[in-house]
Amino acid sequence: MGVYLEFIRISFSQKFVYRMNSYISAASSLIKMLILISIWTALFKGQTAIGGIQLTDMINFVIVNSIIGSLIYSNIANEIGSKVVDGSISTDFIKPINFKYYIFANQIGENVYMLIFNTVPAILLISIYSGFTWPYQTNSLLLFFISLINGFIIIYYFNYILGLTTFWMTTSFYIDWFMKAFFQLFAGTFVPLWFYPDFLLYISKMLPFHLVAFEPIAILLGKLSWHESLQVICTQFVWIIILIVVEKLIWRKVEKKVIVHGG
Predict the structure, then answer these.
(1) Is-contact 126 30, C-beta < 8 A?
(2) Is the pTM of the predicted complex or chain greater than 0.70?
């Protein structure tokens, strides 16, 4: 465990070297939130609520989604893909560490850095503009944190599995396209699932992406009952088990492929 904490620290420190990028990212996050809040304010003009969702819900959704977005951001698939393509993954395999946890630790370090130096400053500034206060209901806070951790595990495993496919595809160009297209469409983080048409909502519910950020936020904002929140968490556990099983099956194939080609 200690060695992976050290990887988290090193990853955090490496990001700290490029502080100018942080300033630009913080400004970018702030502008993005201002644009989204302005768009939703314009859409709600003259209306107290749309489909039972109030403007304050949407402002809170945008801001909380930015915080969670920093925590669940994952470049794992691209990192694995790049390592496979340039061959550097071979040196990772001979290290006396678990490759999966090593990759996860690197990503956690980056995300903690982004949260502290990119997102939090932007949130503090946007709070002054919008009067944002952290929205929560005491009885839903525990369920929110459980669902958030589960969402974190789901997206990390999904990206890890996607990255492993580059052992067969021998290219990683499709990863960015796949994640941006599918995640942004079906996760409900850009446009919340509350406003989706029935057919798109049905497809989204069949996939795991909405469980990563949208459902935890819905729990935090009190949009789900206690029973519905427990259903979300149970569904997350089911997806985590499925992803772990799939990952182990694919990893066995990867090990055989590496042995065959490595001699």
Answers:
(1) yes
(2) yes
Q: Which of 203, 216, 76 is nearest to 151 (CA)?
A: 216
Q: What type of residue is 26?
A: A
Task: Report the candidate in 201, 223, 199 with the shortest Cα–Cα distance to residue 210.
Answer: 201
Q: Is the dihedral of CA 44, 50, 52, 58 positive or negative?
A: negative
pLDDT in tens, 224-246: 888 999 999 999 999 999 999 99
Q: What is the pLDDT of residue 212?
A: 92
* pLDDT value, residue 263: 45
- CA–CA separation, 263 vs 250, rounded Å? 20
Using CA atoms, how far residue 169 sits from 164, 165, 174, 175, in Å, is 9, 6, 9, 11
Distance, CA of 25 to CA of 46 (rounded, Å): 34
CA distance 132 to 12: 28
* Rama region for 160: left / alpha / beta (φ>0; ψ in -120 to 50; rest): alpha
Task: Please enumerate in sequence order all residues whose Cβ is within 8 A of that of 54, keeping only pairs 6 or more positions apart, or say none.
Answer: 44, 48
How do 53-54 and 49-50 pair as beta strands?
A: antiparallel
Query: Six-digit token pair at 78?
Result: 């691209």
164 HSE (CA, 13 A, CB side): 23
Residue with tokens 């939703």: 40
Nearest to 248 by CA among 159, 156, 161, 163: 161
CA nearest 74: which of 219, 209, 193?
Answer: 209
